[in-house]
Amino acid sequence: MTASTSVTTSTSQPVRTRFAPSPTGYLHLGGARTALFSWAYARHFGGTFILRVEDTDLERSTPEAVEAIIEGMQWLGLTHDEGPFFQMQRMDRYREVVAQMLIDGSVYYCYSSPEEVEAMREKMRAAGEKPRYDGTWRPEPGKTLPAIPSDRTPVVRFKNPLEGEVSWDDVVKGTITIANREMDDLVIARPDGTPTYNFCVVVDDWDMKITHVIRGDDHVNNTPRQINILKALGATLPLYGHVPMILGADGEKLSKRHGAVSVMDYPAQGYLPEAMLNYLARLGWSHGNEEVFSIEQFCAWFDLDHLSKSPAQFNAEKLAWVNNHYIKLADNERLAGLVQPLMEKEGADFTDGEGVTKAPDLAKVIGLMKERANTTHEIAAAAMLFYRLPTPDAALLDQHFHAEAVAATVKPAFADFAERCKTVEWNKAALAPMIKEVLTAHSLKMPQIAMPLRLMLTGQLQTPAIDMVLELFGREVVLNRLQKYL
Ligand code: GLU
Predict the structure, then answer these.
(1) For a pocket test of ligand 1, which of 19, 22, 246 has the largest count of ligand atoms closer than 8 A to its C-beta?
(2) CA of 175 to the centre of ligand 1 (A)
(3) Alpha-carbon span 149 to 145, nearest angstrom
(4) 285 CA to middle of ligand 1, Å?
(5) Which atom of ligand 1 sits closest to the CA of residue 222?
(6) Of 15, 48, 133, 446, which has the fewest Cβ atoms less than 10 A away?
(7) Does domain 394-482 have CATH number 1.10.287.70?
(8) What's the DSSP call for residue 285?
(9) Can you give 182-251 as a three-state secondary structure string?
(10) Which atom of ligand 1 is nearest to the CA of 226?
(11) Whose CA is nearest to atom 6 of ligand 1?
(12) Alpha-carbon span 18 to 37, nearest angstrom
């Protein structure tokens, strides 16, 4: 083999991973998953997780995006141990490395104008070759370089090896090998001296002693360039793992068409962070058939051996199912804190009810409502019936209470029921047999009492079990609401 450069890595080092977002927008699901994998890998090995903001694209980077990314990571609980480091604050360091490389000869000044570079690329394309820089200004032993034009500021190019290949064992994709002749002499510094993207990544990964680079596979093409520069610097190479992208259910790259792609849209839509973490963890990684697991369990299991080579598909129904799982597990007081503001927006009244009693305890109501809720919004919608005055539909009230056919039996039963309500012990255990006694005494069936009762108390025919509804409203509210029908 020629100057084959298979990667030697130091895996005995303490694990140091990083998440390196470009702050050009919100934290999207793909970015969050990359962050989660990097974070969990560091946690698994008791290593260090670093947050690095790649903000050198001044046109597209914004402080709002930095905020949004940090907020998204905080919501998910992906805490970083070092950083955030901002590339814009490391410019001196990049310039220092460029200067050192100019001295050691691994990079060179290139005075070709952009037009000249385009012309040489065009020529290569025409000749059926892969377009690249033709090496006009690349110094070689015995080669005479052109005279330096007085009117031009040079870029700095990396002296990519001409022979051999770059090869690395990608922890997700397996061995990837690229011939060096496929690669250009990359511009690492622009005419004004500012370093370019790949170069900053290299210097950062080197300085930050990153041991494992876990990132989206849209960066696979950058990796051989970065490896070559790292080698020229004499750096220990990290291990690379390129995670396939997330697709929508239709097999297309995940985008807004598929619903929310910003992580922070999910708390707004009533998802819990532990559900999102669990769901993201399973997008492209598996541990047998395990579907639901805690974040602690995930960190204990997570390794790079079970990352999938093929793209994962986002499935909103599954995320909703996972969310329902965590809603059922969640503490009701915590859910109340999330649900109450949603209900207030819908006009729910949490003040003590009707001047006579306390509003039903929201945590208890949630305990009753959460079983079938996929989101906190669904809990809120279901819980509203306890926090607004009922406006029963007149036709339904007629049907279940006033109509001649029912009134003769139902009305006396209601009077009896209301009377017993005054003295019965006010809890489900006592209310349930009391209702049964009323039914027996008046030869009625449960729906004949429960339906009109539901209408009068809540304005709707569907509610949780009536004895539970009664308990939660409290004696005073129940008697108050029944009063006008007796
Ligand atoms: N800044 C890059 C991005 O947001 C990530 C670079 C890397 O992980 O090496 O896509």
Answers:
(1) 22
(2) 21
(3) 11
(4) 20
(5) 9
(6) 446
(7) no
(8) B
(9) HCCCCEEECCCCCECHHHHHHHHHHHCCCCEEEEEHHHCCHHHHHHHHHHHCCCCECEEEEECCEECCCC
(10) 9
(11) 20
(12) 10
Q: How far is the CA of 113 from the centre of ligand 1 (A)?
A: 29
- Nearest C-alpha neighbor of 50 from the set 14, 91, 11, 16: 16
Q: How far is the CA of 215 from the centre of ligand 1 (A)?
A: 7
Cα 233 to middle of ligand 1, angstroms: 21
Q: Where are the domains of the chain?
A: 330-386, 394-482
Whether the CA torsion 438, 444, 450, 452 is positive or negative: it is negative
Instruction: Report the alpha-carbon angle 66-69-71, nearest 5.
Output: 105
Please report, as a single letter, which amino acid is at residue 405.
A
CA–CA dist 446, 458 (Å, integer): 17
CA of 22 to the centre of ligand 1 (A): 6
d(CA 162, CA 174): 24
Ligand 1 center to residue 117 CA distance, Å? 27
d(C-alpha 84, C-alpha 104), whole Å = 31
How do the pLDDT tens digits run along the chain, 486 residues long?
Answer: 334 444 444 457 899 999 999 999 999 999 999 999 999 999 999 999 999 999 999 999 999 999 999 999 999 999 999 999 999 999 999 999 999 999 999 999 999 999 999 999 999 999 998 898 999 999 999 999 999 999 999 999 999 999 999 999 999 999 999 999 999 999 999 999 999 999 999 999 999 999 999 999 999 999 999 999 999 999 999 999 999 999 998 888 888 788 778 999 999 999 999 999 999 999 999 999 999 999 999 999 999 999 999 999 999 999 999 999 999 999 999 999 999 999 999 999 888 655 545 689 999 999 999 999 999 999 999 999 999 999 999 999 999 999 998 999 999 999 999 999 999 999 999 999 999 999 999 999 999 999 999 999 999 999 999 999 999 999 999 999 999 898
Question: Which amino acid does the sequence have at 260?
Answer: A
Q: Which atom of ligand 1 is nearest to the CA of 218?
A: 10
Q: Give strand ranges (E) for 222-378.
A: 239-243, 246-247, 312-313
What atom in ligand 1 is closest to the CA of residue 21? 4
Instruction: Kindly report the pTM of this predicted structure.
Output: 0.91
Kindly report the protein residue whose alpha carbon is nearest to atom 7 of ligand 1: 20
Which residue ranges have their beta carbon within 6 Å of ligand 1?
20-22, 54, 201, 215, 219
